[in-house]
Amino acid sequence: MAKQWTPQEQMLLRMTSEFTANEIAPLDLQIDHAGRYPDGLFEQVVATGFLSLMLPNEFGGAGFGPEVTAEVVRRVAEGNASMAATLEGHYKTVYQMLKYGTPALQAKYFPTAGQRIFGFGMTEPTGGSNPMSIRTTAVRQGSDWVLNGNKIMITNGGLAEVYCVLAKTGPQELSVFVVDQDMPGFAFGKRENFIGLRGTPVGEIFMNDVRVSDDYLLGQVGQGGEIGDSAHDDACILMGAVLTGIMDHALGLATSYAKERKAGSTPIGELGSIQRKLADIAMGRETTRLLYQNAAARHAAGQPYSEEATMAKAYGSRTAVAACDDALQVFGGYGYSRDYPLAHLIADARALEIAEGTVEKMRAAIAAEELAK
Amino acid sequence: MTEAIWIVAEREPARINPVTFQLITKAKAIAQGKKVVVVLLEAPDQQFEQAISEYGPDEILLGQNAAYAQASDEVMAAALTTLAKEYQPNAVLFGATPLGRSIAPRVQAALQTGLTADCLDFFYEEDLLVQVKPSYGDNVMCEITCPDRRPQMASVRPNTFAAEKVAGTTPAITPVEVAQTTGPQGRVVDETVRVSHATGIASANKVLALGRGAATPADIASAREIASRLGASVGVSRPLTDLPDFTVEQQIGQSGTTIAPDFLLNLGVSGATQFIVGMTQAKLVVSVNRDAQAPIFAQSDYTFTGDAAAFITALKQRMN
Amino acid sequence: MKIVVCIKQVPESNNVKFDPVTHNLMRGGMSGRINPFDKNAIEAALRLRDAVGGEVALLSMGPDSTAEILRDGLAMGADSAYLLSSRAFAGADTLSTGYVLAQAVRQIGNVDLTLLGRQAVDADTGQVGPIMAVNLNQPQATYATQLTANGNQLTVVRDLDSLTQTVELTLPAVVTVRAEANTPRYETPLHIQQSFEKQVTIWRDTDLALDPAKLGQTGSPTVVRKVYAPEAKTRAQQPLASEPAAAVDQLLVIMQQHGLI
Question: Spelled out in words, what is the top-level CATH class assigned to the domain B199-319?
């Protein structure tokens, strides 16, 4: 059932659509081709308050809930998926700092959370799906923790100034700490050269004897796995929104082209083969939307939402790749041109079959939940 | 006493705005026995009454004062109000220029009468001046009258009527003197005639116009290449002025520049009214748009329904 | 500095249509938006407030639903809002509207500067600002592109198309603002939430010191006696070939025939 937005939410969404249409969407191809946000665009996103819209009022945020926040991400994604992914990476990190952060940590970082972007570092170069295999360590020294290690594939890595990082505090013990770029021993590494979501910086950080107090520990020692899972769930809802926005974008392009393009004297939209593709894109868009909105509604209502969020991303990513592929086919040769958005839309969607856990891993998680019932 | 139609002469630093001459010609055509009177407030050394005389008004009310060389809206409006109260004209017409549209409503408010803005036509029915004005961005026309109060006031859009000189007439020149207002008033500290940077499209023989449907960096680069080969200038519709490549200087339309080239190629321009207003004087118009229903097509001699980017690509290839 | 910005609700789109039978204007959905030029006036006010301190109040006249655009302006960061809503105001032309708005500015009290957009995009008159200035016995600067405050002096650069004029005003004054003056900010999420906590003060005709003879249709000298669609002049619209390459070939031939290449 469609959510009834409050008047405040309606105004937020209308502003988001206007902002996206005027400021972001016209730059979609430029962002893909340049592999970066044009000067001033990200600054304008910050100045318009998008980074703190879900932060509570006491920290200077606007206090909007998870459902409308996801809808904001979807609308931004309809204009440019990279910018939506940047918001996703920030929001999921802020959510964990809200949920698990000490009052001192929140007092330090939240007043500026509307001006600077946050990131969450899980993955390491050695890879492997077992979190216990990570090499980043946090070791007690007096009352402090000393962090050493290296995190890669961080959404907003390099752009973000504040990072949650997963570290081992014991042989079988994971914990999450918050570090920032101003700490001694913190350094940035290289930026990835990905095929899609090319505007979203994805980068690397190094920690070389970065020293933090207990205030910078998220939750408890040993709670790292749970916090990582929570970040994953929040990310999956927002990625479902990104994927839905990508499909909205592809569907809008494909339907308008199908109405204009003629085969002989007939618009191709009247051909059954084209109609079937349009219908498939629309069904994929709608099912993904329902999945992520359901997960967001459960989050807002305080119900468990892990499995639903995982479904939104696992289902939505493959569905979006297929939908964009269908849309490309509707466009024929133009669809294959990099002067049209379809090529990057496929690559954008494809990123989310991998990011935040591969779809294979997610299917395993969904199956495990079902088997446990 | 014969009733009068007043035309308030719009004085620029070095000339009379042509809209004043256009209004004289039009007023003479519809006067039906009323006197056509130009009100000219100028500095003594300006002597614009000679230029105005050539268009054959019946009379010029001439107020000369050094203060009028750089006068505030308040000074101009107060003087006109005083004169209107004294002479009781039937109608007062202004050019719908920024200056005319600033002074006229002050006079209107002081005289507590009606004023119609930006008229495209006006005519008398008996004593009633019927004023025809566009609304909703020229999508609607309204006929407006001011039945009970006088004078009947209107500002009239420049370049709507032709100005015609009248040989061998000598208007009566009536000097008037108006005490300058002592009310609150602005101090004009500088006036600079604007040098238009829009010479590119305003005077171009050939124009390539880009709209939302041809707004990618690739489209823009190709269009520029084609334009340079054709010796054409590149203009844009309003949405594209948001792009870093363009400003309002390249904008075609009501809020931008009116163009009159021999050849206009519209690429991905849908044809919002405000754009069309700025291009109706173009001679040969060819338009490319994906939407067969796009309003631009009705204003086009030749049409291509399809993707502007593809058309640009094909044209660029052919140019090479 | 106490600034009042007068804003107007205009239709979402100017693409109005006529009823094919009655030839009446079909205004379509009731939804409206802030007149775009008024957003430039709000932005100018917010920048002045940020530069020299003070407060920004919004003022609009219209049915109670006009509160929505006042809410939008509050979400841009204005401090307070007043809505003049009364049947007595219905049918007002620019003369009557300017009078009522001026009386409201008097009632708000101690207003240093009244700002408006250069004109509304529906009726395109641009007359209300100067009419207010006369009613308030204040100087004006229309078509402003720059506003600089210095004590009770305001320096305004006016873009008069053929002329750039700089005028110094002693406050209080009325200024209308061009789009070139600034780029209006978007509503921010925080200001959106705050805008719903602010009260929109609604004043009826009885809440203001008004001369009944100057209100509504009675107080409006002008009459709109007819509204119609302008005649559309159209051109030949000959279609070119449906494939781009063939169409381009045709275009080049046509250009040659016209001596353009």
Answer: alpha beta
Residue A74: domain span: 7-112
pTM for the predicted model, two decimal places: 0.85
Residue A303 identity (one-letter amino acid):
Q
Residue A30 to residue B217, Cβ atoms within 8 A: yes
Segment 200-259 of chain C within 8 Å of chain A by CB: 242
| pLDDT reported for residue C22 | 64
Cβ-based contacts of C198 with chain A (< 8 Å) = none
| CATH ID of B4-176, from 3.30.1370.10, 2.30.110.10, 3.40.1010.10, 3.40.50.620 | 3.40.50.620
Q: What is the CATH number of the domain that holds A213?
A: 2.40.110.10
Q: Comparing C-alpha atoms, which of A246, A220, A215, A249 is closest to residue A104? A: A215
Q: What is the residue range of C14's domain?
A: 2-214
Whether A192 is a known active-site residue: answer no
- How far is CA A131 from each of CA A94, A158, A162, A229, A362, rounded to the nearest angstrom? 21, 23, 22, 11, 15
Span C39-50, average pLDDT:
98
In a domain, C229, yes or no: no
Which chains have 3 or more CB–CB distances shorter than 8 Å to chain A?
B, C
CA-to-CA distance for A177 and A217, rounded, in angstroms? 5
- Phi, then psi, of A370 in degrees rounded to 5: -70, -40
Structure tokens at A344: 């990057």
- C134, C171, C225, C234, best to mutate vs chain B, most B CBs in 10 Å: C134
B241 lies within 8 A of chain C by CB: no
CA distance B220 to B93: 44
Of A71, A87, A112, the domain-final residue: A112
Pair A63, A160 in one domain: no
Dump strand ranges (E) for A114-161. Answer: 118-121, 137-141, 144-155
Same domain, A245 and A218: no
What number is the ipTM of this complex?
0.90
Other C-beta atoms lying within 10 Å of the C-beta of residue C175: 29
| Boundary (domain end) residue, out of A43, A77, A112 | A112
For chain B, the structural domain boundaries read: 4-176, 199-319
Give me the residues of B, 49-108, that contact C with CB < 8 A.
Answer: 72-74, 77, 97-99, 101-106, 108
Q: Do C160 and B98 touch (CB under 8 A)?
A: yes
Q: How far is C7 from chain B (nearest CA, A)?
A: 17
Cα→Cα distances A204→A111, B191, C189, Å: 25, 57, 31
**pLDDT, one tens digit for every residue, chain A (373 residues):** 567 999 999 999 999 999 999 999 989 999 999 999 999 999 999 999 999 999 999 998 999 999 999 999 999 999 999 999 999 999 999 999 999 999 999 999 999 889 999 999 999 988 766 788 899 999 999 999 999 999 999 999 999 999 999 999 999 999 999 999 999 999 999 999 999 999 999 999 999 999 999 999 999 999 999 999 999 999 999 999 999 999 999 999 999 899 878 888 888 999 999 999 999 999 999 999 999 999 999 999 999 999 999 999 999 999 999 999 999 999 998 899 988 999 999 999 999 999 988 999 999 999 999 999 8
**CB pair distance less than 8 Å for C127 and B300:** no
* Contact residues for B308 (Cβ-Cβ < 8 A; gap 6+): B211, B213, B214, B219, B267, B268, B288, B289, B290
Q: Cβ contacts (< 8 Å) between B216 and chain A: which residues?
A: 29-30, 339
Residues A141, A52: one domain?
no
Inter-axis angle of helices C67-76 and A7-19, to 10 degrees?
60
Render the burial of B76-90: b for 16+ CB within 10 Å, e for the rest: bbbbbbbbbeebebb
CA distance B280 to chain A (A): 26
* Residues in B touching A33 (Cβ below 8 Å): 217
Q: Which among C186, C192, C195 has CB closest to A18?
A: C186
